[in-house]
Write a structure and sequence with these properties.
This protein is an alpha+beta fold. It is 42% helix and 13% strand. The structure holds flavin mononucleotide.
Length: 202
Protein backbone atom coordinates (compact mmCIF):
# COMPACT_ATOMS: atom_id res chain seq x y z
CA UNK A 1 0.00 0.00 0.00
CA UNK A 2 1.05 3.59 -0.61
CA UNK A 3 2.39 5.08 2.62
CA UNK A 4 0.01 8.06 2.48
CA UNK A 5 -2.96 5.77 2.04
CA UNK A 6 -1.82 3.82 5.10
CA UNK A 7 -1.42 7.00 7.16
CA UNK A 8 -4.71 8.50 6.00
CA UNK A 9 -6.74 5.40 6.72
CA UNK A 10 -5.22 4.41 10.05
CA UNK A 11 -7.87 5.19 12.57
CA UNK A 12 -9.25 3.73 15.78
CA UNK A 13 -10.70 0.33 14.80
CA UNK A 14 -12.50 -0.82 17.91
CA UNK A 15 -14.89 -3.39 16.50
CA UNK A 16 -12.65 -6.41 15.98
CA UNK A 17 -13.35 -10.01 15.09
CA UNK A 18 -12.26 -12.69 17.57
CA UNK A 19 -10.47 -14.53 14.72
CA UNK A 20 -6.83 -15.32 15.56
CA UNK A 21 -3.97 -13.19 14.36
CA UNK A 22 -0.96 -15.34 13.37
CA UNK A 23 2.14 -14.78 15.51
CA UNK A 24 4.06 -14.03 12.32
CA UNK A 25 1.93 -10.89 11.83
CA UNK A 26 2.30 -9.90 15.47
CA UNK A 27 6.08 -10.07 15.00
CA UNK A 28 5.75 -8.06 11.80
CA UNK A 29 3.98 -5.13 13.48
CA UNK A 30 6.47 -5.27 16.37
CA UNK A 31 9.34 -5.21 13.87
CA UNK A 32 7.86 -1.95 12.58
CA UNK A 33 7.43 -0.62 16.13
CA UNK A 34 11.11 -0.98 17.02
CA UNK A 35 12.14 1.02 13.92
CA UNK A 36 10.84 4.16 15.67
CA UNK A 37 13.08 6.94 16.99
CA UNK A 38 13.75 7.41 20.71
CA UNK A 39 15.73 10.00 22.66
CA UNK A 40 19.45 9.15 22.44
CA UNK A 41 18.38 5.96 20.63
CA UNK A 42 17.91 4.51 24.11
CA UNK A 43 15.00 2.33 23.00
CA UNK A 44 13.68 1.99 26.55
CA UNK A 45 10.53 0.31 25.25
CA UNK A 46 9.22 -3.17 25.88
CA UNK A 47 6.16 -4.80 24.39
CA UNK A 48 4.09 -7.40 26.17
CA UNK A 49 1.93 -9.54 23.90
CA UNK A 50 -1.12 -10.87 25.71
CA UNK A 51 -3.06 -13.57 23.85
CA UNK A 52 -3.96 -15.55 27.00
CA UNK A 53 -7.73 -15.68 27.53
CA UNK A 54 -7.62 -15.47 31.34
CA UNK A 55 -5.21 -12.52 31.33
CA UNK A 56 -7.26 -10.69 28.67
CA UNK A 57 -10.42 -11.26 30.69
CA UNK A 58 -8.87 -9.72 33.81
CA UNK A 59 -7.49 -6.72 31.88
CA UNK A 60 -10.85 -6.29 30.15
CA UNK A 61 -12.63 -6.15 33.51
CA UNK A 62 -10.32 -3.40 34.74
CA UNK A 63 -10.58 -1.55 31.44
CA UNK A 64 -14.38 -1.63 31.56
CA UNK A 65 -14.38 -0.40 35.13
CA UNK A 66 -12.16 2.54 34.11
CA UNK A 67 -14.34 3.23 31.07
CA UNK A 68 -17.50 3.31 33.18
CA UNK A 69 -15.86 5.51 35.80
CA UNK A 70 -14.56 7.96 33.18
CA UNK A 71 -17.44 8.07 30.72
CA UNK A 72 -20.39 6.48 32.51
CA UNK A 73 -21.74 9.77 33.87
CA UNK A 74 -21.55 11.36 30.39
CA UNK A 75 -23.00 8.32 28.61
CA UNK A 76 -26.40 9.81 27.66
CA UNK A 77 -25.03 13.20 26.63
CA UNK A 78 -22.27 11.68 24.48
CA UNK A 79 -24.58 9.18 22.83
CA UNK A 80 -27.05 11.96 22.00
CA UNK A 81 -24.45 14.37 20.58
CA UNK A 82 -23.94 13.76 16.83
CA UNK A 83 -20.29 14.89 17.14
CA UNK A 84 -19.41 12.27 19.74
CA UNK A 85 -22.02 9.52 19.26
CA UNK A 86 -20.01 7.48 16.77
CA UNK A 87 -16.78 7.58 18.72
CA UNK A 88 -18.62 6.96 21.96
CA UNK A 89 -20.45 3.96 20.49
CA UNK A 90 -17.26 2.39 19.22
CA UNK A 91 -15.32 3.08 22.43
CA UNK A 92 -18.19 1.63 24.43
CA UNK A 93 -18.14 -1.45 22.21
CA UNK A 94 -14.42 -1.95 22.74
CA UNK A 95 -14.78 -1.48 26.50
CA UNK A 96 -17.42 -4.20 26.56
CA UNK A 97 -15.62 -6.63 24.21
CA UNK A 98 -11.95 -6.19 25.00
CA UNK A 99 -11.60 -9.77 26.23
CA UNK A 100 -12.69 -11.06 22.80
CA UNK A 101 -9.93 -9.23 20.94
CA UNK A 102 -7.41 -11.86 19.81
CA UNK A 103 -4.26 -10.05 20.95
CA UNK A 104 -3.58 -7.21 23.35
CA UNK A 105 -0.20 -5.52 23.09
CA UNK A 106 1.05 -3.40 25.94
CA UNK A 107 3.73 -0.83 25.16
CA UNK A 108 5.89 -0.06 28.17
CA UNK A 109 8.90 2.02 29.10
CA UNK A 110 11.68 1.15 31.49
CA UNK A 111 11.86 4.29 33.61
CA UNK A 112 10.01 7.52 32.88
CA UNK A 113 10.65 11.14 31.89
CA UNK A 114 14.30 11.99 31.32
CA UNK A 115 15.63 15.52 30.95
CA UNK A 116 13.45 17.26 28.39
CA UNK A 117 11.88 14.04 27.10
CA UNK A 118 8.57 12.92 28.59
CA UNK A 119 8.09 9.16 28.96
CA UNK A 120 5.47 9.07 26.21
CA UNK A 121 7.86 10.55 23.67
CA UNK A 122 9.97 7.41 23.95
CA UNK A 123 7.16 5.00 23.26
CA UNK A 124 4.33 6.59 21.28
CA UNK A 125 6.31 6.89 18.01
CA UNK A 126 6.82 3.11 18.20
CA UNK A 127 3.14 2.62 18.93
CA UNK A 128 2.22 4.69 15.88
CA UNK A 129 4.60 2.62 13.73
CA UNK A 130 2.94 -0.51 15.06
CA UNK A 131 -0.52 0.81 14.21
CA UNK A 132 0.53 1.88 10.70
CA UNK A 133 2.08 -1.52 10.03
CA UNK A 134 -1.07 -3.22 11.31
CA UNK A 135 -3.18 -1.09 8.97
CA UNK A 136 -0.98 -2.04 6.02
CA UNK A 137 -1.65 -5.69 6.88
CA UNK A 138 -5.40 -5.09 7.18
CA UNK A 139 -5.33 -5.35 10.98
CA UNK A 140 -7.19 -2.90 13.21
CA UNK A 141 -5.76 -1.21 16.30
CA UNK A 142 -6.53 1.60 18.74
CA UNK A 143 -4.13 3.39 21.03
CA UNK A 144 -5.74 3.08 24.46
CA UNK A 145 -4.66 4.16 27.93
CA UNK A 146 -7.65 3.39 30.18
CA UNK A 147 -5.95 0.30 31.63
CA UNK A 148 -3.66 2.74 33.45
CA UNK A 149 -6.43 3.33 35.98
CA UNK A 150 -5.50 -0.20 37.13
CA UNK A 151 -1.84 -0.08 36.24
CA UNK A 152 -0.56 -1.73 39.39
CA UNK A 153 -3.03 -4.61 38.91
CA UNK A 154 -2.02 -5.01 35.25
CA UNK A 155 1.64 -4.97 36.21
CA UNK A 156 1.16 -7.57 38.92
CA UNK A 157 -0.84 -9.82 36.59
CA UNK A 158 1.86 -9.73 33.91
CA UNK A 159 4.89 -9.69 36.21
CA UNK A 160 5.96 -6.23 35.05
CA UNK A 161 8.68 -4.76 37.29
CA UNK A 162 8.15 -1.71 39.48
CA UNK A 163 10.35 0.64 37.42
CA UNK A 164 8.38 -0.04 34.22
CA UNK A 165 5.36 2.03 33.15
CA UNK A 166 2.73 0.75 30.77
CA UNK A 167 1.93 3.62 28.41
CA UNK A 168 -0.48 2.07 25.95
CA UNK A 169 -2.65 -0.95 25.48
CA UNK A 170 -3.26 -1.76 21.84
CA UNK A 171 -5.99 -4.22 20.90
CA UNK A 172 -5.01 -5.93 17.63
CA UNK A 173 -7.38 -7.85 15.40
CA UNK A 174 -9.18 -8.16 12.10
CA UNK A 175 -11.69 -5.31 11.83
CA UNK A 176 -15.40 -5.92 11.38
CA UNK A 177 -15.82 -2.63 9.52
CA UNK A 178 -13.94 -0.84 6.79
CA UNK A 179 -10.90 1.36 7.19
CA UNK A 180 -11.49 5.02 6.38
CA UNK A 181 -10.28 8.51 7.07
CA UNK A 182 -10.79 9.87 10.57
CA UNK A 183 -12.34 13.30 11.06
CA UNK A 184 -9.62 15.89 11.61
CA UNK A 185 -9.40 19.68 11.71
CA UNK A 186 -7.95 21.03 8.44
CA UNK A 187 -4.16 21.37 8.42
CA UNK A 188 -4.40 25.06 7.42
CA UNK A 189 -6.37 25.71 10.59
CA UNK A 190 -3.87 24.09 12.95
CA UNK A 191 -0.68 25.32 11.25
CA UNK A 192 0.86 28.74 11.83
CA UNK A 193 3.65 30.25 9.74
CA UNK A 194 6.32 32.39 11.38
CA UNK A 195 4.20 33.45 14.33
CA UNK A 196 1.54 31.90 16.50
CA UNK A 197 -1.87 32.71 15.11
CA UNK A 198 -0.70 33.54 11.57
CA UNK A 199 -2.30 31.10 9.21
CA UNK A 200 -1.40 30.56 5.58
CA UNK A 201 -3.56 29.55 2.67
CA UNK A 202 -2.15 27.21 0.04
C1 LIG B 1 -3.02 9.10 24.13
C2 LIG B 1 -4.28 8.47 23.60
C3 LIG B 1 -5.10 7.75 24.48
C4 LIG B 1 -6.25 7.13 24.02
N1 LIG B 1 -6.98 6.36 24.87
C5 LIG B 1 -8.05 5.69 24.40
C6 LIG B 1 -8.75 4.77 25.25
O1 LIG B 1 -8.39 4.55 26.42
N2 LIG B 1 -9.80 4.11 24.72
C7 LIG B 1 -10.21 4.29 23.43
O2 LIG B 1 -11.18 3.65 23.02
N3 LIG B 1 -9.56 5.14 22.61
C8 LIG B 1 -8.48 5.82 23.06
N4 LIG B 1 -7.78 6.64 22.20
C9 LIG B 1 -8.16 6.71 20.79
C10 LIG B 1 -8.76 8.06 20.42
O3 LIG B 1 -10.04 8.18 20.99
C11 LIG B 1 -8.81 8.14 18.91
O4 LIG B 1 -7.49 8.09 18.42
C12 LIG B 1 -9.45 9.42 18.41
O5 LIG B 1 -10.78 9.51 18.84
C13 LIG B 1 -9.41 9.52 16.90
O6 LIG B 1 -10.08 8.41 16.38
P1 LIG B 1 -10.12 8.14 14.79
O7 LIG B 1 -8.68 7.96 14.37
O8 LIG B 1 -10.92 6.90 14.62
O9 LIG B 1 -10.73 9.34 14.15
C14 LIG B 1 -6.62 7.26 22.65
C15 LIG B 1 -5.79 7.95 21.77
C16 LIG B 1 -4.62 8.54 22.24
C17 LIG B 1 -3.72 9.26 21.25
Amino acid sequence: MDVFEVINTTRAMRRLKPDPVPDELVWKVLDAAIRAPSGGNRQPWNFIVVPDEAAKKKIAEWYLEAWNASYGPARDAMAANPDSARMFGSADHLANHLAEVPVLIIAAIRGGDTGTSPAGSYVYPAVQNLMLAARALGLGTTLTTLHRAHESDVKELLGIPENVQTLALIPLGWPKGKFGMGVRRPVEEVTYWEKWGETQTR
